[in-house]
Amino acid sequence: MGFGGEDFGAESSTLESSGRFEAADSSVLDSSVLDSGAFCSMIGVCGGCSDDEVACDLHHKTQEIKEAFGLADIEFIASPPLGYRARGEFRIYKEGGESSAPKAGGLDFGDLDSGKIDSSKIDPVSPQRFFLAMSARGANKRVKITSCPILLPNLQYTLSELVKHINKNPLLSHKLYAIEALGTRAQNRTQATQTTQTTQTTQMQANQSAQTTQSAQPNTAPAYPSIISLIYHKQLDSEFEAAAKALESKIKAHIIARSKNKKLIISSDRILDRLEISGKEYRYYRREGQFCQPNAFINPQMIGFIKRAIAAHRRDDLLEMYGGDGNFSIALADSFSSVLVTEVVKSASALIESNAALNGITNIKSVRLSAQETIAALRGDRAFFRLRGLDMTAFRFSHILIDPPRSGIGDAAILGFIARFTHIIYISCNPKSLHQDLQTLCQTHKIERFCVFDQFPHTTHAECGVILRKKNIE
């Protein structure tokens, strides 16, 4: 992999490789599967994982990134090979439900009269069965999957139970289009706070804006460890809702059903996650539909890497852009005097504040701002009504943390703004866009630490964490 561009490694030759494998819970790994050399029968067929063992090897990916960025040495942190993924998106594969007699191009019903086939061996309507499906590798079609060993074990079990119950109930299987799953490793913990049992219906207006109505009951929602979202091409009526409630109690997972203009939340749309980082536990609400890190084992390792890397820095205030649900800022808040988190999604900004309260953190302020609006607000170019009561001039930022989309930053004005900070923490899920952004940032900064995280085992993708310090500042 060669991206071209300048050599960013001139001032990072003192780095020592700290590549290591952070051991997973023993319950996650099935040694018999690993020893067989084929952990999944769908490798090379399903589009989720690649069968190119060389290209997917973490050492190979790390070496390619090291050479592409011109680094003398970099760090890497490995993932467990199985049972690590906290979310999954699946389509539906159907079998049966139609005549098993030969179709066009083969025998037809006239052959029955001629005695060419035995009518007693024809099942006119075979029972329809539903399976999870993924896109095929290199082909525009779906392939049936009966297991997905990269998912967290509790998600694997929940999905197997889900498929079993869906196949028993036509109300649940009829016009089911897709299934999404979200889980955590904290499956045996009790929910920290109460949430009301809610049935939520979202009506879409003609202008595409959404209005939400809720009917809340005083019951406490059960603290299930996962959320299953069922997506339909049909209207969701009261009869369906009753079936969905029964399904939730059977599979012990929060059920959310979606169809056009409607979202049905049976009990809750969030689950509790717990991360242990540097010997301290942090708690997070993860919400359905809200981005969260996919690898439940690598996520705390990324945060731990940042905390170690900045430990010797002079730390005043932190600005985090693209804050998501506060995944990084919650755990980093105790390293700074104050933290300002900006996020363009309104629901995400509210979730950050909920997660701060959940951890008793009082030095985080979350505001709904895009990257461009953040720059305008901090420069004083314009006033925002949503920032009333917040003195943006009071912050003394020493660090900025960015975790942009796969496309990276790319914008010269935003990169110029980021370059004003003494320390930059850049988390990237795309080494190519990271490389392009560093061509600008490394004109003013030098790389202190560079780590490759195996966020996506069995693929050629990699996550990178880069710590940069402004040149000529010790």
Would you give an account of this structure?
The structure is a single chain. The strands form 4 sheets. Strands 1-2-19-20-18-17-14-15-16 form a 9-stranded mixed beta sheet, with helices on both faces. A hairpin with a 2-residue loop joins strand 12 and strand 13. It is an alpha/beta fold. 25% of the residues lie in helices and 28% in strands. It is built from 13 helices and 20 strands. The protein folds into 2 domains: 239 residues, 3-Layer(aba) Sandwich (Rossmann fold); 167 residues, Beta Barrel (OB fold (Dihydrolipoamide Acetyltransferase, E2P)). The N terminus is likely disordered.
Topology, please?
Blueprint: E1 20-21, H1 31-36, H2 53-56, H3 58-69, E2 75-78, E3 87-95, H4 110-114, E4 129-135, E5 142-145, H5 153-166, H6 170-173, E6 176-183, E7 196-204, E8 210-220, E9 226-232, H7 238-251, E10 254-259, E11 262-265, E12 270-277, E13 280-287, H8 298-309, E14 317-321, H9 327-332, E15 338-343, H10 346-358, E16 364-368, H11 371-379, E17 397-402, H12 412-418, E18 423-428, H13 431-441, E19 445-453, E20 463-470
Parallel strand pairs: 1-2, 2-19, 9-10, 14-15, 14-17, 15-16, 17-18
Antiparallel strand pairs: 3-4, 3-6, 4-5, 6-9, 7-8, 10-11, 12-13, 18-20, 19-20
